[in-house]
Amino acid sequence: MTSSQKPKKQELPPTAWAVLGLLSFPGERTGYELKKWADSSLRFFYWSPAISQIYAELRRLEELGYAASVRSGPEEARAKRRYGITPAGREALAGWASDVAEAGPPVLKHGLLLRVWLGHLAEPERLRTMVTEHLERTTEELTAVREAMAHAATEPDWAFPVLALRWSERQHLAELELTRALLADLDGPEGPHARERQAGGDAPTPG
Fold first, then answer.
1. Per-residue 3-state assignment (H helix, E strand, C coil) for the chain
2. What is the pTM of this model?
């Protein structure tokens, strides 16, 4: 696989580095295959880019000389373009992955907790239902994480992805514990719903 573009240094968004990271493992992959892999790995501890984002970043990476592609021949019923990382791309990715200063702190954007924060505007039972549904979704995600771990464990080159997925398993277990505690807080004698009942249903006012 060759690329006609010369590599050049450029600041890239995390999505580009993530896509290049997917290409850093052995083999060449289509954009669709990269999306499937992101859905079964990256999304459990970071996020999964949309297929349109993946193709946009693949074009950018090719322009930089960090990735190169080849189109399948007439032996395939549908032409496919497969992508792989170039030596320049691997060098750039290694430099980025080694720069701990750029990792930054983890960012938590918890949609459910934002709604709990606004719980004084919600019906108590509806709020409890949302928390219960989150508990169910997290349980399903934990199952998916464990399935991804089992698959990754069969690939000799995926030792480090297994570590990331193992962390994700622990994170989902912690999320389950936190959500159960949140339900207990909502339903407990000192919870906001109990205080609202005692106050005759009046909405709380800021102190």
1. CCCCCCCCCCCCCHHHHHHHHHHCCCCCECHHHHHHHHHCCHHHCCCCCCHHHHHHHHHHHHHHCCEEEEECCCCCCCCCEEEEECHHHHHHHHHHHCCHHHCCCCCCCCHHHHHHHCHHHCCHHHHHHHHHHHHHHHHHHHHHHHHHHHHHCCCHHHHHHHHHHHHHHHHHHHHHHHHHHHHHHHHCCCCHHHHHHHCCCCCCCCC
2. 0.78
Both tokens of 60, joined, read 């950018």
Identify whether the C-beta of residue 69 lies closer than 8 Å to the C-beta of residue 58: yes
The tens digit of pLDDT for each residue in 31-66 reads 999 999 999 999 999 889 999 999 999 999 999 999
Residue 28 pLDDT > 80, yes or no?
Answer: yes
Task: Round to the nearest angstrom and report the end-to-end CA distance of the chain.
Answer: 65
How far is the CA of 135 from the CAs of 5, 27, 46, 150, 181, in angstroms? 49, 37, 20, 23, 11
Provide the percentage of residues in the chain whose pLDDT is more than 70. Answer: 82
Q: Nearest Cα to 191, choosing from 111, 108, 131?
A: 131
Residue 184, both tokens: 């207990």
